[in-house]
């Protein structure tokens, strides 16, 4: 089998590995789709000393082609999604499906465990979810991280059709949040400094779009769209500190803000927000039950998650794929068989 390995400093290569053999409670999945995620870029751009020799990628979907001795052979040939964090399987967090929060230490695909930018990937059976009928491999791959992260954040915000939500950043996660929020019935104010990304957000159903680089005050611009009150919910996905800060200031009384973007810093005057009775929370990916709920919602509501993908690549096109993705000017990319 072959897999893409990051070498650091924007270098990577396609490496040949032995085909994996499953342990008793493991399965081997033939990768039909492996999404490209913004968090991959941290390792791709990082130093050579920070690399780990593991196969990259953590948004897989595929078909089970081999099973361990403790796994029923009935799973052979089934199309599956994979939750990309593996825990001890025994602690309270693992039992709740939050394996990334494992009290005994989790491993992550594409980082501390081999990932899905490969022909085959070996994973614990506990990380497997059957794909619901009607879900594409591309959608399943997106739900395993990017779209699933958006879903997890919207659920942390308790978003409903009564809400107006400002979504900062319209990259793959932010655009997925826009898509899902619209499907939930909420009004979306989409914000991004890229006109092309704002155009896509509008096409995905955003009620209003705002370019922060073209307004004097983001908070005032958002309030103008809501009769001066502000929004009931806000979500920051870009990792930009300016956006993370603005996510607080656009809120109406009793509003709620959530942050998923990595790398931002927030400083605020507690008194200012105390008297507005706001709720502030973070959200990190999603649990296994939430991943299943997201997949079912996508199928039941007919959400076209495949539209998130603007580039499709073969493994042999790895260099071109990440060179383009590194520019962060396109939509979501995916490797397919």
Summarize the structure.
With 337 residues, the protein is an alpha/beta fold. The chain has helices at 40-45, 92-95, 137-143, 146-156, 172-183, 195-203, 218-225, 241-249, 270-274, 288-301, 318-327, and strands spanning 2-8, 11-16, 26-35, 60-67, 79-82, 85-86, 107-108, 120-124, 128-130, 164-168, 187-191, 208-210, 231-236, 251-259, 279-282, 309-313, 332-336. It is 28% helix and 26% strand.
CATH class of the largest domain: Alpha Beta
CATH architecture of the largest domain: Alpha-Beta Complex
Q: How many structural domains does the protein architecture include?
A: 2
* CATH domain fold name of the largest domain: Quinone Oxidoreductase, Chain A, domain 1
The share of residues in extended strands comes to 25-35%
* Helix and strand composition category: alpha/beta
Oligomer: single chain
Distance between the termini: 12 Å
Global morphology? globular
> Biggest β-sheet: count, sense, barrel?
7 strands, mixed
Secondary-structure element series? EEEHEEEHEEEHHEHEHEHEHEHEHEHE
Number of strands: 17
What is the radius of gyration?
Answer: 20 Å
Keywords: Metal-binding, Oxidoreductase, Zinc
Catalytic activity: 2-deoxy-scyllo-inosamine + NAD(+) = 3-amino-2,3-dideoxy-scyllo-inosose + NADH + H(+); 2-deoxy-scyllo-inosamine + NADP(+) = 3-amino-2,3-dideoxy-scyllo-inosose + NADPH + H(+)
InterPro entries: ADH-like_C, ADH-like_N, ADH_Zn_CS, ER, GroES-like_sf, NAD(P)-bd_dom_sf, Zn_alcohol_dh
Pathway: Metabolic intermediate biosynthesis; 2-deoxystreptamine biosynthesis; 2-deoxystreptamine from D-glucose 6-phosphate: step 3/4
């Amino acid at each position: 089998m072959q897999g893409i390995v990051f070498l650091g400093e924007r270098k990577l290569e396609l490496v040949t590995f032995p085909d994996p053999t499953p342990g008793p409670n493991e399965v081997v999945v033939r990768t039909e789709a492996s999404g490209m995620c913004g968090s991959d870029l941290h390792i791709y751009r990082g130093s050579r000393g920070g690399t780990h020799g593991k196969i990259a990628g953590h948004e897989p979907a595929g078909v089970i082609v081999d099973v361990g001795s403790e796994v029923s052979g009935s799973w052979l040939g089934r199309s599956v999604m994979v939750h990309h964090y593996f825990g001890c399987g025994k602690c309270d967090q693992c039992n709740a499906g939050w394996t990334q929060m494992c009290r005994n230490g989790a491993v992550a695909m594409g980082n501390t465990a081999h990932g899905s930018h490969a022909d085959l990937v070996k994973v614990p059976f506990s990380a497997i979810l059957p794909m619901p009928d009607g879900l594409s491999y591309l959608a399943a791959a997106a739900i395993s991280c990017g779209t699933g992260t958006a879903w997890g954040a919207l659920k942390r915000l308790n978003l409903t059709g009564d809400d107006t939500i400002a979504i900062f950043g319209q990259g793959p996660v932010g655009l997925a949040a826009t898509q899902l929020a619209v499907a939930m019935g909420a009004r979306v104010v989409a914000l991004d400094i890229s006109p092309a990304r704002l155009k896509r957000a509008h096409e995905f159903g955003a009620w209003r779009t705002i370019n922060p680089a073209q307004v004097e005050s983001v908070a005032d611009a958002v309030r103008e769209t809501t009769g001066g009150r502000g929004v009931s919910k806000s979500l920051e996905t870009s990792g930009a500190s300016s956006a993370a800060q603005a996510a607080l200031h656009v809120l109406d009384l009793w509003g709620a803000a959530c942050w998923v973007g990595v790398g931002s810093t927030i400083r605020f005057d507690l008194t200012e927000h105390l008297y507005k009775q706001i709720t502030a929370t973070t959200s990190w990916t999603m649990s296994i039950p939430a991943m299943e709920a997201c997949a079912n919602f996508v199928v039941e509501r007919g959400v076209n998650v495949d539209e998130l993908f603007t580039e499709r690549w073969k493994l042999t096109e790895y260099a071109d794929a990440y060179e383009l993705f590194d520019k962060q000017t396109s939509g979501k990319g995916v490797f397919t068989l």
